[in-house]
Amino acid sequence: xxxxxxxxxxxxxxxxxxxxxxxxxxxxxxxxxxxxxxxxxxxxxxxxxxxxxxxxxxxxxxxxxxxxxxxxxxxxxxxxxxxxxxxxxxxxxxxxxxxxxxxxxxxxxxxxxxxxxxxxxxxxxxxxxxxxxxxxxxxxxxxxxxxxxxxxxxxxxxxxxxxxxxxxxxxxxxxxxxxxxxxxxxxxxxxxxxxxxxxxxxxxxxxxxxxxxxxxxxxxxxxxxxxxxxxxxxxxxxxxxxxxxxxxxxxxxxxxxxxxxxxxxxxxxxxxxxxxxxxxxxxxxxxxxxxxxxxxxxxxxxx
Amino acid sequence: xxxxxxxxxxxxxxxxxxxxxxxxxxxxxxxxxxxxxxxxxxxxxxxxxxxxxxxxxxxxxxxxxxxxxxxxxxxxxxxxxxxxxxxxxxxxxxxxxxxxxxxxxxxxxxxxxxxxxxxxxxxxxxxxxxxxxxxxxxxxxxxxxxxxxxxxxxxxxxxxxxxxxxxxxxxxxxxxxxxxxxxxxxxxxxxxxxxxxxxxxxxxxxxxxxxxxxxxxxxxxxxxxxxxxxxxxxxxxxxxxxxxxxxxxxxxxxxxxxxxxxxxxxxxxxxxxxxxxxx
Lengths: 303, 279
Hints:
heterodimer; A: alpha/beta; Rossmann fold; Alpha-Beta Plaits; four-stranded antiparallel β-sheet; 11 helices; elongated; B: mainly alpha; two-stranded antiparallel sheet
């Protein structure tokens, strides 16, 4: 649904996004990860036709955003960090105003969306009286009004309390499961992305350093904690047998392809090396992300 | 959809309190001026001027005359101030508040968005001028009788007396020219508002531009180039009261004001089109 092809954006001499190529397939919950200033918001700005790329091509729903912006955004909703509204007007008026920039929207549709996001009863109150959570719901309501096929969420959890974050997570799941929306979620809240996204891309200093399925990230794990009195001898033996591909920090090993902890234990016992403990360690998205970001400067060819 | 979007802009514009600063200020200033005219030597000066020219002062010190007297400083000073304040807000305030980013995530073209905003600004100008004229006349009628109109504009050596009916027609007609002034002033601040600057900066730049025009227009060296200064064309509304009215000159001024408004809009739209909208 979104395709960025070799997109670069420069602000003066600063390169905010560097030759970014990205595909967000229909039906996915796609996470766009990166630290502050990594280029996530600029990339989203380009997808929405708010920021003009210096070079490259941005397509949304099959349409070029630069030349056919209206057609490209017809079925797209967006929510930004700290959503802004006309505080002196009611939530309902805000929804009416914003809906008129897309397509004629009936009162019935507005009522339906207000109900869906759980704002009913407060929709006619002035927005200045809304809590942060209610504003987030109003932001979601305005994004849902044009019956989008895709939602772009730029740091939607920022500023929310833990309860609000949990609610947001549930809402995103509902949007995907109940309404079948394709979702692009930009965030640096790794736990949210890990729980919600089926596919991720990681940006670092404007460059993409990873793109793949969340399952791939987890499959890359294979990290095992090994407790043994003689770690160097144990890893030397395991290397010799081709059971591991790497060892680090005196306690971790990385299993070879299709190798199991049972095979490792058996091999060490056979070599008369005591095994005090061995267990598979789940690599979190955080571990994966940090390893990517730390190693990124040395990578000359981004994924 | 265009009308719905225009309605949106009007709703936003008239929904916020700061839009009414101008209305409030006009009411306040008019009240002060009215009381000053009534209770200071100001009225006596007018009476002397009329009787010195052979007219019976009591026939022309009227609601229409006083309303016109009150309009002169307000059209010259207050109107540009409030109109540029609103014009400077139209785009820059939305950019500053973040609502512009919300709007531009929708499939509306930037040009169309600016067009509806500009049209809403024009309607605001019309409403403001209408209110200014009506309140001036209404307030003046509270303290002065409904009689003939005396129009005096020393800059154009305009001195005219009119029966009440004709005076009212001219008074209403002059409002159209004041609206044209307001639209040109708003368009200049709207143009600056389309740049990546704060709303206050847009207003200040527009006022500076107008002030600079006014100063240069009055420098003797530039007397031969007066048509090049926008403020020179702002006094058409006073020329309505000349007998006979210089229609070709007024038409030329109105065409120039229209062209300035359209040019300011197009420059603003061009700048806005290539701008990056970021939070």
